[in-house]
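Structure Section — protein described below
Tokens — whole-number codes for backbone shape
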Amino acid sequence: MEFSGITAWVTGASSGIGEALAKALSARGAAVILSGRRVEALEKVTSEIDGATFVLPFEATDYDALPAVVAKALEWRGGVDLLVNNAGVSQRSLALDTSFDVYRRMMEIDFFAPVRLTQLVLPSMTRRKSGGIVIVSSVAGKVGAPLRTAYCAAKHACIGYFDALRAEIEKAYGVKICVVTPGSVRTNIATNAMTGDGAKRGRSDDNIENGMPPEQAAAMILDGLAHDRREVIVAEGMELAALQMRAQNPDALFDFVAAEGARLAEQREAGADIEPAFVNRDN
């Protein structure tokens, strides 16, 4: 995919990977639509971009409002060439302590919202027989990780949907689908994660604080898109190894994550704060 002159729409563009992608796309010549809920944060990002931008705030799960939002995006420059479904929320709670409502909310935000937005944008691409759609899933979309049963479920669902969508439209309509699987990236994802009762966690963790810089993640994603890759892995160290184990030796992976699950269960039974173990990206 070429970026110069295209119109790219990035959700979750007010911070983290989305912000880095918006800036990197603009630097490569794209006009960028930036979406999210926080208008001031989106405007701050646009103030740091020299190229053409359009701030289009919306609530991802306000499905009644989405058709009008999509119409504005398509009208800005006569269409959208690249849709990047990046907005989402994570989770930090054991299944024993997680309310059913958290599972519902997670699926709405991380799965149904990008599916609905994709449904509304896709017809304009299939009519032109060109375009690209990106879904930012996660290593947790392939690896069942403790403290993330809801998040893993939603991200697994994303990979299943977009892999199947690719099968239906890639050769028939020329629309490309790319699934991105990031590991730990230095963003606010842990701080904003849902706890077992749905509240915001309010603090980060060592894995995220020592994660990959979002600018590096964005560069890896755009390099993958430039080479028309259907899947882009944005992970290093043990997280990359976990993906490889899932494909080559799943029992070894299941044993590895079960050991971490047992450690967390001990913390829970002892009434201690439950914290994920630090994973050194270089190991």
